[in-house]
Amino acid sequence: MRRYSVQLCRALSENKSHDSMVFRDIQQALYELAYHVVRGNLKHDQASNVLGDVIEFREDMPSILADVFCILDIETSCLEEKSKRDHFTQLVLACLYLVSDTVLKERLDPETLESLGLIKQSQQFNQKSVKIKTKLFYKQQKFNLLREENEGYAKLIAELGQDLSGNITSDLILENIKSLIGCFNLDPNRVLDIILEVYECRPEYDDFFVPLIESYMYMCEPQTLCHILGFKFKFYQDPSGETPPSLYRVAAVLLQHNLIDLEDLYVHLLPGDNTILEEHKRELMEAKQIVRKLTMVVLSSEKTEEKEKEKEKEEEKTEKPPDNQKLGLLEALLKIGDWQHAQSIMDQMPPFYATSHKSIAVALCQLVHVTIEPLYRRVGVPKGAKGSPVSSLPNKRAPKQADSFEDLRKEVFNMLCYLGPHLSHDPILFAKVVRLGKAFMKEFQSDGSKQEDKDKMELLFSCLLSITDQVLLPSLSLMDCNACMSEELWGMFKTFPYQYRYRLYGQWKNETYNSHPLLVKVKAQTIDRAKYIMKRLTKENVKPSGRQIGKLSHSNPTILFDYILSQIQKYDNLITPVVDSLKYLTSLNYDVLAYCIIEALANPEKERMKHDDTTISSWLQSLASFCGAVFRKYPIELAGLLQYVANQLKAGKSFDLLILKEVVQKMAGIEITEEMTMEQLEAMTGGEQLKAEGGYFGQIRNTKKSSQRLKDALLDHDLALPLCLLMAQQRNGVIFQEGGEKHLKLVGKLYDQCHDTLVQFGGFLASNLSTEDYIKRVPSIDVLCNEFHTPHDAAFFLSRPMYAHHISSKYDELKKAEKGNKQQHKVHKYITACELVMAPVHEAVISLHLPKVWDDISPQFYATFWSLTMYDLAVPHSSYDREVNKLKVQMKAIDDNQEMPPNKKKKEKERCTALQDKLLEEEKKQLEHVQRVLQRLKLEKDNWLLAKSTKNETITKFLQLCIFPRCIFSAIDAVYCAHFVELVHQQKTPNFSTLLCYDRVFSDIIYTVASCTENEASRYGRFLCCMLETVTRWHSDRVIYEKECGNYPGFLTILRATGFDGGNKADQLDYENFRHVVHKWHYKLTKASVHCLETGEYTHIRNILIVLTKILPWYPKVLNLGQALERRVHKICQEEKEKRPDLYALAMGYSGQLKSRKPFMIPENEFHHKDPPARNAVPATVQNGPGGAAMPASLTVNTVRLEEGATEEADKLKEKSQGVVKVINKAVNAAPKVTTSNGNSASNSKIIKEKDEKEKSGKEKDKEKKDKTPTATPEMKALGKDGKEKPKEERANKDDKAREIKEKTPKSDKEKEKVKKEEKASKEEKSKTVVTIIESKSAAEKEREKEPSRERDVAKEMKSKENAKGGEKVPVAGSLKSPVPRSEASESEREQKRRKIDTHSSPSHSSTVKDNLNELKDSSAKHYINHTTPTLSKSKEREVEKKDLDKSRERSREREKKDDKDRKDRKRDHSNNEREVPQDSTKRRKEENGTTGSSKHSKSESPSDSPRLNEKEKEKNKSKSSGKEKGDSIKAEKMEKSSSGSKKESRHDKEKTEKKEKRDSTGGKEEKKHHKSSDKHR
């Protein structure tokens, strides 16, 4: 036991860690040892020995043992067991040598001491201790009241209050104080209190009193000083009491010198922290209530005003808050520069609670002033400014002054964060901080520092941004309209990238105002004031309202602009007054406005479409309009807005392009509108000056600065090209990305908006970027198309200015290198420059299309077309003259104006003169340029069109890849395309068929029109208008036609056939036939227009009305076509009035304009010559329907019907002609295929001419026919568009045509159609027929490939034989036939003709066409019934039709039985005819090459995509020719008097020949059927 206890105590004693734990463990061990003795388990002598061993282990072991004895003494005295008490007493007695008597007397009970024999009597001991305590604690030996020892205290105060300026030190005074305390028994605590009192009165002697107190405190307990100060503060805590600042200061100084602890003093101060927190919450609630009151709509305003006044009075009463000692101490700490303790106090309070008290804020501001002084003097003071230096704080414990920006971060930024919005109390400090920020940004943005420094600077920059967000902007909100501060802040802000600025504005607007009660109030007051101003803002009071807006905006721009923009979005009539009223804003405010606009645009809660989903929302349109106006008028940075638009485009949203469009329009003066007049368009083809003067609706002047700003923003942020590319990509993506469920009308609008903005923006870049900037940014054409996937039209649009820049700079280089002024030299240099620049482009464009494309058109031609503009092709002289004349008129008006002051007159006149000179100079420059370009084109043209396949294919490629994409790109491009086609024609370009090109353009516009958007339709209309203008000019006068088209290759038709002479023969389309062609085009336009109007489709109707409005100057010219249109448009007006108001408005507009054009329309016979109606026995009705004229891809022949009693000679001729026809058909099928266009006008004209010339001799006739007969051919060749590449929709059109033909042709035609319909009604038969046609087509094509030339020769022989047999040539041209007046004949005549017609019709043909027509019969009958003005009443017509139907059925049955017999006869006749051809007729046959030969050629050159289409076309032509025959039979009767029977027979033979050609052109298997049917006719 002994050993164990000793080891335990030793182990515990050796453990040096955790003294208190060890102490307790030793106590426990000793206690247990002693307790064993008490309980009798251990003898007291053994225990004393153990304790004797242990006592040496620690110095304080006797004391620990005494403590253990003390505890055991108390425990054993309470026990009843006497033995335990005795054991305890024995143990203590045994251990007396270990513990001193003194210690035991302190710890043990007097009775125990008595029992141990340490004292004699416990009672005496108790009495003695009481006496000692009374003497120590209750007898006054020191005096703490002045009156008790006035002399001592008087001397003390004298000592402390003496003049301290000499050599008196605190140590000396301290010795004196000690003497006084000892001499007069002064209370040391009271002495300390007096020292503090004197220090309060003499605050300037810090250096004396602080060491004195510090030294004095060595004699006192540490807490004494804190208790004395606490007692002093407690004294002033009465409700009426006010703590003196001197006490705060003394406490602050003592805290700063660490003589007291803040925690010890803080508990003595009032109010408590809980009270402060509650007060803060109450203030926040009050602020919110004020906001609620301001936003409430109150009707009885007078009552509320009274209530508010009462409340304000109450608030004033309770305004004086109770004394806050914590804030007083904080202020004192700040004043002496003790930032650490001040910070600790502020941390105990809610954020910004302390600084919301002005005195605290001002004190902290002063501390910041002092801290930043050296750095501010070094880098912040503006040039020329002196400023008043701030003296540093006298004490050395104040924060270290900042000498570098790094020092700012350590202390100053922290101080500013505690200040928060209350920096507003010190505008001078605000300015200083901002200037330091500016200086830092200057250093931050300069390069060349090390990586470590850069990291430090980055850290500093983030700190600066935080300070701006938490301190500067909120403080600005609390300043009272301080414009200077706003400008000062902008000085720093403008060095930040806009992303950082906008982030700061966003925080300021959306978060800062909710962080503090004062800011909450300010926000509410700003909105209230903004409402007041906006309610009263009008155009008349812009200036005063603007000043008020300005004042309000200096401090709280975000709140104000947010409200203003919300009003603009609702009421767009506010835009102009608001824009005008914003002229009193600061630069910072303008920047904030830009942010607010972007935030409003990006508002996710607002819908960008109206509820009908067809138009863009009005709020977005209003904002866009406001944007344009405000960015133009004021110097606001654009980068953020432009980037926003770019980001939206990246996200596939094009709504916001409206913004860009408005901004470019207003800032650059570049207007995009489809409503431009032709005068404006003409002006747009000139130079920049002319564009500015005459090209736009509004004369937007002074755009130089604003356009420069826009350009700089685009270039600085590299947004010029990305925006273009994004727009170009988005344009095609609109339908897919944004189409979806949206209304087609809206999708079209978005597409147009995207396209228009691209054109506008591209135009801006082209006219404003320097050559270097443009070339540096726009990549080559192949990169644009292949890598950036830019559509070709947009890519060339962007590249075009680059080529022009390149060429002009190269040209200037070459001019400088070789100085020669001759025009020839200049042109040569220009051409060289073009070659140098364009050669890489020619290479680049090859990759844009398949190699096959370049077989027909050369890359050079493609690049030339896309790289030129209207500026290069023509000089708008009239436009230049117009603008110059305007300026002259202006100058005259200035002279006449008496009121204008002379100096202003002079200025205005000088401006006008300068403009005039500029325009004239520009015109001269453009004229020279155009001449050079035309010379270049003249040299290039021979290599343009390669035509390796066919001319038809070449025209297709030209239209597909060049004309159509570009003519809908912009209004000027539409004009350019029309001019370019004319230019290519005028240049006599090889392989370019002008006729074919124009025919393709006019023939089938339905598909093009239907696929256009609204604006594209407008541009397409312009293109057609310009094309029609050219055609109308040629049509109007023979002289003009002969001059501009007469000998031009574009109007040539080349006969590709090998005759006996072995050469090619070329013929020219004469003037009259050209007029027929033009009429056919007009007819085609009418048909397409009527079709679109009848569809009921929104897009079709809208687009065709737009196109018709655009081409109104040149179409319709023919009265009956105009009337047809007028009826359809009138119908649209009636139908759409309630349903679709926009279509109704368009239709009404067009209808009105069309009526006004009516007096200028002419009858059809004046528009082109045709058989005069006067020669007919019965008056002809006007036939105006489409279908009477245009029969695509077929040749119709004017034939003269023979009477019933025709001679046998005529029959013989017929037989021979049948034989010839077969050969010709073979030749036609074998020749290269080109589908000819329709119309019978040429043959009409030929017959008229023939009639006029019948009196002449045979020789004269021969000569004239050599000149005139070939004129039909160009149309066959040129008008090949009808049959070429027609989509499915055209089939429906053709079916419609057939319906029209049925209604317009005489009754026999109708009967014939009905018979066909009934014969071939079933679908099975139709499909079989179609298959047959396809097979026959392919067979015919194979046959053609094998033997083209041989069959052509045979055809010639047959023709010459026929001519010889007939006795006289009859010119029968391939039909360019326009509608012929419908003749009325008796029913008997009609039946006779019908029989003849019926014998011609082949069952397979009729079934195909009729069945194809079945689907559209009802609708087309409705659509086109208006085109004819029937001569019989409808009821009569129906009766006649019924009779005719029965008869025609019988005839059709007979015809079918005879088919087989006819086929055999035809074969026999054909072989006989071949043998009978005389050799001497070949010469005459050659002369006739222009008639039948040309028709052969025209057929041979037009490939037709679908055999079914061909069948339809041919059937239509048959039905048309039957109608024609009816009219011709009457003519034939008239002509018998003046012409011989042989002529009639010959003409009849021709008719047979041509009809055979038509039928046999289907080729192969169908051929035999045709021959049999014609035999039957014979």
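Next protein, fold it too.
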Amino acid sequence: MSEVVYDETATMIAAGDLHSFVPFGREHCRNHPNAFNLQLRELQPASELWSSDGAAGLVGSLQEVSLQERERESWQLRKGCTGVEENKAEFEEELYTAGNVVVWSHGSRTQASSVYKAFTVDSPVQQALWCSFAVSQNNSEVEEVEQTVCIVQSSCINVHTVTGKDFISPLPFQVSNVWATKFGLLLERKNAANDTQSNPPGEPLPTVFSMLHPLDEIAPIVCKPSGLFEGSRVQYVSDSNMKIVFTCCQPSIVVSYDTVQGTHTVWALRKVTHDERSMVLRFPADPAGTPLGLMASGFLTSHLRNASHVDSPGGSGAAGLSSGGGISSALSSPLHYSALHSHQSRIMTSSPGAHSRVPSPSISNMAALSRAHSPGMAAPSFSGTSRFNKSFHSPSPRGHHGLLPSPNSTANESMLMPEMEPIVPDLCVEQLWSETIPTGCHREMSSQASKVFLTSDLCENHYLCFLVESHQHLRCVRFIESNDTTQLIFPSVTTIPAKDAVPLQNIYAMLVLEACGSLVLYTGITRVSKVFVPSLLSPSFSLTNHLPHLRMPVETVSTPANAGSRHIHRLNEDSLPSPVSELKSLNIKHHEASFFEDYTFQQASPFIHTLRDPVCNRVTLELSSGMMLRISIPEMATSELVRKCLRAIRFILPKDVAMKVLVKWYNIYNAPGGPNAHAEWSQFVTCFMTLMGYNTERLAWTRHLQFEVPLSPVIAAKKARPSDGGSEEDWDYLLASHYHRQINSHSVYGSMDSCGTNNVVTNEKEDPSCASSPSSPSLKLESSAPLFPHIPALFYVLHLLYQELQLDELHRARASSLVCLLQQLARDLQLEEYVDLYWRDYPSLISCFTESCIIDQAVIGQMQRPSFLSSAPPCVFNWLSSCLRREESPPFPYLPGICHRTELLVLSYALYIIGDERATSTNISKYLFRLSAGHKSCANEPNFRRQSSVKVRFSSEILAELLVDWLSSQGFTLKDLESVPFGVALPIREAIYKCREQPSSDWPEEVCLLIGRQDLTKQAHKMTLAKSKASVGSGFSLVPPSSTEVDEEEDGMSDIIHEVTGLIWSQDLRVQEVRRLLQSSRPVRVSVVQLPEVSDHEYIEEKENKLLQLCQRTMALPVGRGLFTLFSYHPVPTEPLPVPKLNLTGRAPPRNTMVDLNSGNIDVPPNMTNWPSFHNGVAAGLKITPASQVDSAWIAYNKPKSPELANEYAGFLMALGLNGHLTKLATLNIHDYLTKGHEMTSIGLLLGVSSAKLGTMDMSITRLLSIHIPALLPPTSTELDVPHNVQVAAVIGVGLVYQGTGHRHNAEVLLSEIGRPPGPEMEYCTDRESYSLAAGLALGMVCLGHGSNLIGMTDLNVPEQLYQYMVGGHRRAQAGANRERHKSPSYQIKEGDTINVDVTCPGATLALAMIYLKTNNRSIADWLKPPDTWFLLDFIKPEFLLLRTLARCIIMWDEILPNTEWVKSNIPQIMRGNFDPSEDINMDTMAQAQDYITAGACMALGLRFAGSANSDAFDCLYEFARTFMKMMSFAGTAAVGAQMGYYNLQTCLSMILLAMSMVMAGTGNLKVLQLCRFFHKRTGGEMNYGFHMAHHMALGLLFLGGGRYTLSSSNSAIAALLCALYPHFPAHSTDNRYHLQALRHLAVLAAEPRLLVPVDVDSLKPCYALLEVTYKATKWYNQTTVELMAPTLLPELHLLKQVKVKGPRYWELTLDLSKETQHLKSILIRDGMLYVKLRAGQLPYKDDPQGWKSLLATTANHRNSGVTAFRPEAISTFTSEPALISFAEFFCKTSEGLKSREDSLVLFSAMLYECVTQECPEMLPTYIAIEQAVGALRQGDLQQTFPLWQLRLVVELWDSRMLRGPANKRDTLLTSEFLPVMKNAVDVALDNWLKDHSSVLRSYMRSEVLSGDARAVMLAGFLVYRSIPCFKNPNTHLEGCSSFADLLSHSSQLGIPLRDLLRLVPILLSSASGSQSLLFPLQAFPS
């Protein structure tokens, strides 16, 4: 019978899953609105028609809808994979093309197809394909892959990416074919007929081009042929005879066909190397080539330029086919045609099918330019196309391959055509293999392959197959990837007769349609079997047999089961093909003959015509009738266990044997009418053992494996037995059944009974007369069986697989089925220790097996015993256990790629328990012994003694980090950890627990997931999101509330996030108050009391005057509002930005009548609202966050319709620059805005663009600014009339763009501009001060902080020149370019040749301050000291004194101290002393000087401590503010008023207020708020627009960005603040004389986000958390640590060492800033959200401020212990773990059914309490498992010893931890008393058993046969738990020991732990001495 099994001819498998197939796109296109396009086109004028459609026009579109549409359809399928691992979500994607429509759809067997995308294009689609383009990321080498669909039309390619980008790439030539590759698209140029005629000889143009990205240029491809002669020649691919027939991504290859020589060639496609590029591009001088070269180039240019005239347009679909060359004209059916051509390389993307092409005209050269997307990118006229004319010509004759050698052109020519810049090639093809041309007979020349594909066989050999249809055969070329993976080696070619073939990727096979019409399955080149398609009758069946079935409907036949029963036994054996070994051509001829004779049959029934669209294991059969069927070919195995076994077998066997076995199994498994899934394992065992030479019919246990399926369809009929007659076998079957064994092993009927039954069975089996006796020949192994020699090796790999299954809870159940097979093999190989190991694992199971088969001594030599088969069985638990006990053990063997879990856990233990930090890198071989397939005879065991070098003991924390990091890099997740047995998993859980306590903040997301810190995972996830996208739009973000009331909306401050501000300022409503103070969109209240003597008319005037005063305040508010709402709003891209109105009306009480300024009663200044509305626009624009997505279109979309809003829009533009979005505005739009000549728009735009490009030295912006600054233009240029304010803005813009660069030319120009003299024609005469100041500020910015190291500027004498500008003196001669301009003096202003200090001083002072900022340069600072004589003091404006003091202080940055003494120290000595009354001292001068100097020092103090909230600085400033307020209150009185003047006091006070709000920026300090509110209310008198602006700016800074932002004190920020807070504020709203108002907004550049908001990761709500912030040590203070309650503003990051979230409420989290601050910065930029996770048992601070309600606290105040006081019901308030909550619900509450189990309820509650308080909820399953195991042991109903193994590992881990001392106690997870209690219970149970059954143990030690009763189970458990070795091998006998000392010496060799040995002492010694005297009580030995 065994012969039948090997009979290949008889095999046939059934195809499953049959259904008819119609491409989904066809259905969709029926409903697709194609006709609408027609109507639309009729409406277009004719001219447009021609242009839009090439020359097709209306005629073309009419044809499109006609019947031809069906003719031109084509489609391709590929495997779709969703983001999960590829095998998870399986569906098919279809790309269908018909006419102008491309439909991309998804569908699977379980889900109906649906359209994913449908595209309609203008002209007929020539081809549609999937392609992935690699897009390199801007800064890194990593390339991102963009998945796209490319639609090829005659004149362009449309590329649509999955992410939604669309590109149109015009084609500069006609394309015959497009191919997708790893790098992008390959384009084949269509050979026009005229190419060959008019070209000069030997000058072919390149034929193959590449496009690496739709935006890249199309470049020719170079090739590197392999050949002796031209090895080094690299040249363009220009052979018109070379056709590409296939491309593939993985490996990256191209297959081409030479139409002349008739051979196929394989090329490797790769990026071109630098050398090759230069070789192709260089132009060697070649005099011989001159005439030819010139001629060619002239021709080329004309050819390409006039391309559209040369090609004739039009042509029909049929013409396209013939141009392809070797395609036979018989292929009239387009379906068939595309079927041949469309093959998919499904590995990454699919290669396109060459569907029917329609030639169409080339486009004119302009189309090549149309890729310039944005208007700013237009290219010069002909460069795009003319680059193709780059001399692709060389005079040398054509090479052997018809490929053009490197193009030579001459120096002469390149001079003639300078504009021809060569196109650089991107890709290169290198020849790998070429078909050999059969000599002599040219008739035999193969035609072009109609299908090419890659396939691999079951043993992982790879083949490249091409189907040559004319010869009806398939050529399979085997290829091997060499070690460096770039080279492929092609060793052999095999030919298989075939009419058609397709690869089946995931079952490593291909389906071949033979000439006779039958389907055959091959794996690689090995024939597997025929494929039987139930509803299709193969034409080789004889017709008569099957006529009755022809009329049957498909359904009845289609199920494989009944199909099998009907047809199989009627097959004619001779008509089935013979196995591969005899594939002679004769055989084929026979089939063809029979096929043609049977002509009648062919007519009667449809046969398979072609195969197409393979996806995974599904394929479409196209029948001759035109119908299509989709079938699926069955897989190798469905059961995971069988799959793993097959993999192990394939791994260890030689390839040829493995192939036989796999093919054999495949045929048995998939026979028609095949098995159901549960019988699969039984079938596998039978097949496998038969192949090894067992007679499975005679072995009791295999005989009864339950399956009804015959081994081979041929013997089906013979095996059927009538079921009514019982037989002897039935009784045996029952006895051997699993049920029977189970009943026996539970001693239900008392021990006597069960023993009896067992004995009966055993006796029967041992009876020599029985069939199973050794003498009968039936149980011998058949040594001729194919696997017989490999039995030992196979046994060993299956044993290792068994060990692997033991390590996975989910697969462990399967291990018990595998163990039956293993024990049989182990018995027969006489490996006693292995049998013992299996018995210990499954005692009740193994005891039932006793049979063993005999292997003849004669043939035993044929068995190859591999060296790695050791006598001691490798047991993974044993290995891990010895690892925990610190014993050395040999490396553990594993199968790479199969035993993944073994490898992971062994290395984890080595790393974490042994502490070898290199275990996972260099020392792997110490712990793992890798079996390799060639290990048949490995001479020596590798030496595994560990080197005893001195090792650095790593701390367990570091090891834990290493372990967690390594595990996550191996893809190990928490889900995997759950399936690791609890004992093995404990050390890993412990490591995770350690890492969870002290994580590092910058671990990647996977690690955070593994250690179970959701807070960190969420944070890491946001970071990765942020890296991948520029925006943070996705994910949770703090969203401002949407307010419902209408009036709320319009004040522009509704976006402040109340959730956060409510936490920061929880006690009061200060944010609402600020909102009230800053709102400018509602009318103000004008309350004027009408006195009796005032007439009504006067009263109205009085009201309007009062309103005018109030409006001064309203107009100043937006500056503050912009700072308050800074970066708080994400705009909606489809809506314009809401800008609140600036409301300048009032309401008069009591009747609320309207008061308006436009009534004409009073004079209102003209243009009063221009600047306020500009500020209002800025304030609105500043709300937009820098992270939001804003594009050029949206910015333009916001442009207002009405001209009166133009100022607002100008402000909006400036704001967009300040938050960085203006860089997205297209250059064209910028140009557009500037040419309008609107002054405000120009100012806003110039300042905005410069701010956005801060410090970049951007050239395009520099040009933009230069046009507006006469000094930067060449002297001869035309005078442009630029408004003065625009010039000021442009000058500041130069400063911003060149900030900190020290750019020499700009510094020189700006230096001279500070003192620019007024010009003759009134130019430069008005507002000169602001221009000079701007030049000074700009100069300061350019040289910011450079101090004396201004490189290359020594000749400019910058400081001296500035000093002169500051104190006055003779003007120097103008240098350089500007000499001409300043020749004639002004006719208006007489300045003479001295410097006008009033104009130049402020700019020069601040320039000095900024150049020497923070340099502590005393000599410069001394220049700025206030004068020390009264005489000199009279010459300096008090205002300038303020500036000088400020400048001097910020130069001496480190000397600023936050106390009043320091401030007063700036006042010169003469003012502080006692005054001599005799001197004539002007008290006014002195008082003013003192106050202004004080204000300047306060301002410096504010800058020094900006954003620090330093309390000393604040107190000091507040003190001065109070003093000035007192003086203000006396200002009315004569004494003070006369001396000081209200204006001066108010100025100083404003500056001090601003300084205070700089220090307290973002903190919302109440005292400052009160001052601001006080000044808000003062409106009359001298309170002008400027003061209001200052006060409300102070208010805005105080609540900067709603409390999320504060100020930085970096150099750049100080510069911005100096510009913004310049101490001269405008007198009225149109005043720009001293300082341009727009600069006030530059304060934004100093803002930085430093608010840290803890967000609870479970509720995603902001919450409170305690932070511990550590400052680095500086020279003013040592390293200090402060505690802050977040949300809080952090200090500047460069001052900090670390920030830490403190316990005990939340999980600790440390952000270490000493390494790098980038991580924290990125958190702060993204709303500052730091995710925190509440620890279980704790409540948030909001609910429990004092911490008295926590779980531990509640238990402490009860008398009793925590556990008993713990109420499980309360759990939900303390933890959000759903597992714990439901556990409490179902297991810890007393219910009716559980009354009896009170104690276990208490135990469960205790476990739960432990998990919650110890913060390790994942330990709950471990606790329960331990409890269950111990419970089972106590009651004696253990089924297997697995739980005891786990307990033993747990105990050993605990012991090893305790040995290190109690200090390490907190490291361990099992801290409580739980483990000792459980351990004790196990000890007691085992000791009691030992007392009663010591005889069983003795008989085991004497290796007597054991019965399989309950005692055996307990015995096995005892042996496992006590780690007693196997006594089967002779040197372990302890029997001979007479004394305890002997025992000890013996046991040390055995490795029994001492405490376990003591348990054995009484038994061992008593058996030796025969006396019982030694039975001392066991309790004497501590456990």
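About the second fold: The mean pLDDT is 75.
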